[in-house]
Amino acid sequence: IVGTEHHLYKVLSSIQMLLFKNALFKRVFSWLGMNAAVRAVVRMGIYVGAKVYFIREGYQGMVDGGEENIKEASWESVSSMLQMGGTVIGSARCKEFRSHEGRLKAAHNLVQRGITNLCVIGGDGSLTGANLFREEWSGLLEELVQQGLIDEDAVQKYSALHIVGMVGSIDNDFCGTDMTIGTDSALHRIIEVVDAIMTTAQSHQRTFVLEVMGRHCGYLALVSALACGADWVLIPEMPPEDGWEEKMCQKLSATRSRGSRLNIIIVAEGAIDRHGKAITGSVVKDLVVRCLGFDTRVTILGHVQRGGTPSAFDRILASRMGVEAVIALLETTANTPACVVSLCGNQAVRLPLMECVQMTQEVQKAMDEKKFEEAVKLRGRYSDITNHCILVMVCLLFPFSLQSNFNIAVLNVGAPAAGMNAAVRSAVRVGISEGHKMFAVNDGFEGFYKGQIKEIKWADVGGWTGQGGSLLGTKRLLYQHHLITKTPGSGSALQAYLGLMELLEARGKYDEFCVPMVMVPATVSNNVPGSDLSIGADTALNAITDTCDRIKQSASGTKRRVFIIETMGGYCGYLASVGGLAAGADAAYIYEEPFDIRDLQSNVEHLTEKMKGAIQRGLVLRNENSNENYTTDFIYQLYSEEGRGVFDCRKNVLGHMQQGGAPSPFDRNFGTKISAKAMLWLTKKMNETFRQGRVFANTEDTCCLLGMRRRALVFQPVVQLKDETDFVHRIPKEQWWLKLRPLMKILAKYKTSYDVSDSGQLEHVVRNIRPKESDASGAM
């Protein structure tokens, strides 16, 4: 039975699962962790028929035992947790668990409740402790028998302890995963502070030194510096060369001489120089005041970075990881090594826990021995990201004196999306650093044919990173009589894509278009073929999530209320579905998953049953074009009528607020990195196609879209994407996020099947991955 459990679980329908789960899945889980992940583990565990327990106060609660510390969880006990920061079940360091006697007490407390599966969230120390506990388990049970605390039957029944880890760390310092739970929220806190500080710095012509967390890892400092357009950054992995003080002061002075009224310096708390001497915020401040005389202030963010409301990214990541952790425990055997659930690109993966821990410890050892380049390489995939970020930082901060014969134009097309300005800034500055002359086209293709083109210089894009909208201007229209034809039914998200195809076709008629062309996806709808993610989508998700949180909070004094929320997206249901997962929605209506009146009635009945229990609020999202007949007004009236006497309804159309506001840290950095990569690709293609005194590029692989595909950024010829596109409804024919919809339904307590065929499989940690690039594809 154990050997076939995985295959049975794949194919069971909802009815079959109800029949089989008591026989196959009578397992028990407990949990150490944070709220979105706690919620996902609890509800997925209950969904598969397991008993789920909270262990309060971390390992301390496991050692102390008792009803207060180890308590069975219910479905309702994790309601209204998604928007809460920290962890509602508590977390604490436990010296006693480090001793053999402490682990013996913990084993006894688990056996008393029949717990043989642990989901643990923490850093390398917590996960190392969990693995040691697992390895000692059989010996601990024998000791308990000898002491007369348990019998031989218990040893046989609870012979193995299974462990699955999830990494919770704002430092993002764990090898094996691209992002740890909590990192994105910490970046949000940092950027909120930086954006606020920049206004006062601008007013008073001040220099601000911000010290952020990161004792051994500079991820927060580096990425936040990219996101806010800082003038200088200091991180532990890359100690500055001797003489850095003079170089930094020269850079700050040069920034002021170009008209800037402020300077921002980001310092990681673990930053050191080449001799191991600490570089603190105060040290940097004293240096600036002494050498430049600038009015300088220091802000130490401290534990502000650990608090606040979780970002949409962290909620989705934690929910996915929590469900994946339960599935991993369902599939584990006595011979399966303890694993950690990780994120690689856009995919969930499982890695052997101790391989990741050992790699993380090797990084720290290399840092202690001042082998900094080795430490960066040991981070594996993260080292690629780090090196790329550093490359971008260098390009963005230092205008080199290189010269080329190439001119490059940048334009925004379609509706505005947060992060566009960061992408333009990156393109302009990387282009200038490569020696090119950069031009800006105002108002998209309309400005292109009207000749609204002007040279744009380094200083012209200063301060653009944190601004929303499109400072270059953008238009949705493509003009029929000026080469670009207007495609019926085409929406803003595909304008750049369609325009690029028109320009490609026009090469046969106009040699001027025989130049390399590249598109980076930027739309809140996230509906560009060839890319799993688009610039602007994360900001829109956060806007939806924040609004839903506030709307639900508005009903805190009102019992039994359901909110109907309409989101943007055209025919693409990404915002409604993924926003629903992040906000804890009960249902999300989208075009890609057709629904009828029976589905609506079923949802009403589900909410009616829910309102009779402890849960008093409901949330339903609807994509704006999900159905031409079942409109938001129709659904609101249906719910109001059918729920009469049980709950009342309210509706809200979010509208263009999803396109506005300051870009999220993710969109700022995604836009910066993807544009930098696009510019380097353009430079390479122009050099390859330069002949007889001009660039002549007329092959398909010189007109590409750069998009995120699963685990990599890939250049794809636009002609190859035609077959992947539904042009009528302006969406890709296959969309990865549709696999997340059953997850949202399960966490909302619907009886549905969940296909685990795409779940993470156990892989191994690979050191220093360096994917090869071809002309048509280049992976990062």
UniProtKB/TrEMBL annotation:
It comes from Hucho hucho (huchen). Its cofactor is Mg(2+). Pathway: Carbohydrate degradation; glycolysis; D-glyceraldehyde 3-phosphate and glycerone phosphate from D-glucose: step 3/4. Belongs to the phosphofructokinase type A (PFKA) family. ATP-dependent PFK group I subfamily. Eukaryotic two domain clade "E" sub-subfamily. Keywords: Allosteric enzyme, ATP-binding, Cytoplasm, Glycolysis, Kinase, Magnesium, Metal-binding, Nucleotide-binding, Transferase. This is 6-phosphofructokinase. The keyword Cytoplasm applies. It comes from the Eukaryota. One of its GO terms (molecular function) is ATP binding.
